[in-house]
Design brief:
By secondary structure, the chain is an all-alpha fold. It has one domain (4-119): Four Helix Bundle (Hemerythrin (Met), subunit A). Helix content is 76%, strand content 0%. Helix 1 (4-25) runs antiparallel to helix 2, helix 1 (4-25) runs antiparallel to helix 4 and helix 2 (31-56) runs parallel beside helix 4. Bound molecules: fe (ii) ion (2 copies). One fe (ii) ion (FE2) is lined by residues 52, 67, 71, 106, 110-111. Residues 10, 48, 52, 107, 111 line the site of one fe (ii) ion.
């Protein structure tokens, strides 16, 4: 994708979700183990969304609010599913499939074009403009 920190975070998130998908494929019920990984994954994802927003805020990127709203909607959806699963582990497969599908689609459809926009040099603010 080209913005190093974002690329690194995407890889880490995708690797983790792929790891959860591998756990699902194992025969024994993997629900508890997957649940155990969820808080860490959610933390990375939220940290990543914040990084993306702070980088895009440096540009005149036109779809910032829309992009931010997509992130927020995703977080609400995952939180809802996570709450359900704590009472009924059967939802864990649905959660992992949703995570993998949403993240892949979002990265390709939204993040890559946003990153291209940044790389094209639409910068309106310095990276460390602490005043
Ligand atoms: Fe992203
Ligand atoms: Fe994004």
């Amino acid at each position: 994708m080209g913005v190093d920190e974002i690329d690194f975070q995407h890889r880490r998130i995708i690797d983790t979700v792929n790891g959860l998908a591998d756990l699902l494929k194992r025969g024994d019920p993997p629900g508890m183990e997957i649940l155990h990984h969820m808080p860490g994954l959610c933390e990375w994802v939220e940290q990543h969304f914040a990084t993306e927003m702070s980088i895009l805020t440096l540009t005149d990127y036109p779809d910032l609010d829309y992009h931010d709203a997509l992130h927020s909607a995703f977080v609400s959806e995952v939180m809802g599913m996570f709450r359900t699963i704590q009472n009924d582990l059967r939802g864990v497969e649905e959660l992992v499939i949703f995570l993998a599908g949403w993240l892949e689609n979002h990265i390709v459809e939204i993040d890559v074009p946003a990153s291209e926009y940044f790389k094209e040099g639409h910068i309106i603010r310095e990276t460390n403009s602490g005043s």
